Amino acid sequence: MLLYNEVIKIMRKIDLKNIIWKEGKHYVSWNLNTGVSSFGASRKEALAMLHEALELYFEDTLITKVQKVERPDIVPMTFEYA
Fold first, then answer.
1. In a 3-state reduction of DSSP, which class is residue 47?
2. What is the pLDDT of residues 39-53, one digit of tens each?
3. For labelling, which of 18, 19, 23, 32 has a CA lying 20 to 30 Å from the CA of 71?
4. What's the distance, CA 60 to chain centroid?
5. CB 12 within 8 A of CB 63
């Protein structure tokens, strides 16, 4: 039996799509569903920092507002500019 001041936290899961790349000395990690990004000295650190940033993001954002990304493609494009 639960006491009135006990809180049960129900853990739910959401599948997110992330991209990671090297930029100079750092790795950049970017979540496609939310636009949240982070970086680190290694791929592992960049993903850990992204995880932390997403935890903070989801403290203030409803999961229902997350954009669903089905099958992202990286599509090259040549852009000319002046």
1. helix
2. 999 999 999 999 999
3. 23
4. 14
5. yes
The answer as to whether 8 is a domain residue is no
pLDDT at 27 over 90: yes
Amino acid at 42: S
Mean pLDDT for 18-36 is 97
Query: Does pLDDT of 5 surpass 80?
Result: no
Q: CA angle at residue 59 from 73 to 40, to 5 degrees?
A: 55
Structural domain boundaries enclosing 46:
18-64
Question: How many residues does this entry show for the chain?
Answer: 82
Inside any domain, residue 76: no
- Which helix H or strand E contains 56, and what residues bound it? helix 43-60
Q: Is 2 within a domain?
A: no
Specify if 40 maps to a domain.
yes
